[in-house]
Structure formats: structure tokens, C-alpha cells
Amino acid sequence: MIELQLKLLGDNLRNKAFYDALKKVIVKGKTVVADIGSGTGFLSFLASALGAKECHLYEYDEELIKNCKFFAAHSSEIKNPPKADIVISETLGNYALEENIIENMCDAKRFLKPGGIVIPQKIEQFVAPVTSPRLIGKINTWKDVGFGLDLSALAPAALNNMFVYKILPADLLQQKNAIQKWDDIDLQKNEKSVRTGRAQWKIEKDCEIFGFAIWWNCELIPKITLSTSPFEKQTHWDQIFLPLSKSLNFKKGGVLNLSIKSDSRRDVGIRLNWEANGIKMDSSKGIN
Fold this sequence. Notes:
This protein has helices at 2-9, 12-25, 42-49, 101-108, 134-139, 155-159, and strands at 32-36, 54-58, 84-88, 112-119, 122-130, 163-165, 180-186, 194-202, 207-221, 224-227, 239-263, 271-281. The chain is an alpha+beta fold.
């Protein structure tokens, strides 16, 4: 846990974005802040330095709360919480929903005074096909173990998993509509934790698709955002690679379809399903 917290504290882009957002909404001497999943308390320390009247910190990891006055429980366990002007939560992961931010923020609305605001406010999720074999090569290391061992039984488990990688722009399909939004979440509303999305690409030149990259943009407040896009400055978060069990070969004019289902309910954990198919693929190569 402390390793993760140090990684968060070292992410200057993240820290600056949250500082800027708090600076715009805190009224000195008046604003009460509820910090959901507070960790070390960094966001509340920022809020306090910016003049917040009170900060209520909710964190269930007791190792992080020994030297501070925190509510030592998951925020959802708190009955009749003190009301706040701002509810803030940095429960974002490499996959945006892996720390249950939708459920956290839906529940945390009961912490708000009338007219209060939540931070962050919106999450957009994006997807693009991966045409470089680099990432699938990182997964298929079992093929090169050697010593006469046949580890091919690992393939189904490996290729039906999502992986956290630093994905490069060069790994992605190189055409104008390569990046598509598959999910749009408004954390100011009571959004569902089971989500579905679709994307479609008309392929502009011959290529082979090995999987998909996904990332997110998060609006803390209007005009202040964080992004894990491979086209933006690097944060401590990386991107997600969704491999295909068999790559898809396309000729120019082919159509690639993708469907994604995400289930981030707290009692489920994280379950991400993706299915892809193609129309007018390169039949001379078949499916690898």
C-alpha cells in the first residue's frame, strides 16, 4: 500500500489537476470537504491549505490512518455522515473503474449538503485497435520458455485477461477514426456499474489487429481534466491492453466490430468482457 501511495504522491500531473480543481471550488473558511478513499490524506491536506473549514477523511486501510484523525471505515459503512460542500475521491485505476469509483460516488452523494459538488464529475473511456505485435509478444512469453516444456495450455488464460501496459501511439491503428469513445460516465448522476459499449472501424489499409487499447479522460471540474491517453503526458497510470485470442487480418475496406461489457460492482470486483469480429477480412491469410 505504501508503494502505491508514494507512486500517487509522485504524480505531479495528477496532483496539480486536483489542486487546480479544489482551488476553484473551495470558499475559504466555509467549505466542508469529504475525502472518499483518502489514502494518506493528500487531497484533504491540499483542501485545508486552500482554506477549507473542515475535512472529513474516509479510509478503511488502518495502516494509513494511524497518525491522523480519519473515519476508519469504508465510506459506504458510515451512517449519518457529517454533511460536506464538496465530496472528492481519487479512486481511479489504470482501468478507470477498478477501484469502484461509480459506486463510491453514487453512495457519497448522501455526504453532500444541498447544492454541493462532487470531484471528479465525468469519465470518458476510449478504445483503439492495436496493430503492433509488440504487446501480444509480451504476453506470449510462455512460447519461449524452452527446456522441452510445452506450456501452450497457458494461452487461453493469458489471452482472456486484460493487461496494464505502457502503450505507445505507434502501437495503434494509424487512421483518422482510430480512437473511439465507448463509454461516458456522469458521476454527478447515479450511474450503473454494469456498462456496455460498442465501436466500429472501416479499415483504410491492410492490417492485422492483435487486440485493443483502452484509456480514460476524467473531468475533475469543467476545464480541468486528467487523461491516461498514450497521446498525453505520462501519469503514474498506464493503459489497458485487451488481447485477441486470434488476431484478425484485414484488407482495405474491411469492417472491424467491437463490443465491451464492464462489471465493476463491489461484490464482483472487475469483470471485463470484449468480443471482436470482422467483415471482408483477408481470407487468403485467414485468422491467425
